[in-house]
Design brief:
2 domains; alpha/beta; single chain; Oxidized Rhodanese, domain 1
């Protein structure tokens, strides 16, 4: 599984979405486990079919990315896009993009009840590694144009506005 996850970084999302594998402790898998072993202990799934689904999901996910430069252009158009920041409150308080909305319980209610499902919705995180799950959620809520900012706010600070400070998260 380690090799599968390296080749397809969001394979775990695909496994959960299509087969309910890897989303909880009862169906978790070990990175040292082979794809064949995983399939065998999950109702004898066909490894080729599972790998095909992972590839399809990977291709679908790739369509969700938008560069920081393209996001900046979309945001310049009046009513052209919304920017939703899914980083932690601490990260948001330290630095955020003008006009962005921080994801919270309150903002989520506003987004779901008042925002047009047709307007481009751009998800931003720190480095572009966690936004796909949020994008999938919004797609499930009927938003038609959801994109994830490739490289997150870190890319924005390098490609669009160098006045936005870059930062590193310290691991606990």
């Amino acid at each position: 599984m380690k090799e599968v996850l390296e080749a397809f970084p969001w394979a775990q999302r695909a496994l959960f979405r299509h087969f309910h594998i890897g989303g909880c402790s009862s169906c978790a898998f070990d990175p040292g486990e082979t794809l064949e072993d995983l399939c065998q202990r999950n109702d004898g799934l066909n490894p080729t079919e599972v790998l095909d689904r992972i590839r399809e999901s990977h291709d679908e996910d790739a369509k969700l990315w938008i560069t920081a430069t393209d996001a900046a252009q979309a945001l310049k158009i009046e009513g052209g896009a919304h920017l939703v920041d899914i980083r932690t409150s601490e990260e948001w308080n330290a630095v955020h993009l003008e006009g962005s909305v921080h994801m919270s319980q309150s903002s989520m209610q506003t987004i779901l009840s008042k925002w047009s499902r047709e307007t481009l919705l751009i998800i931003v995180d720190h480095t572009g590694k966690t936004s796909l799950d949020a994008a999938t959620y919004f797609q499930g809520q009927g938003f038609k144009q959801v994109r994830c900012m490739e490289g997150g706010i870190d890319a924005w600070s390098q490609q669009v506005d160098r006045s936005i400070p870059r930062y590193r998260l310290e691991s606990a």
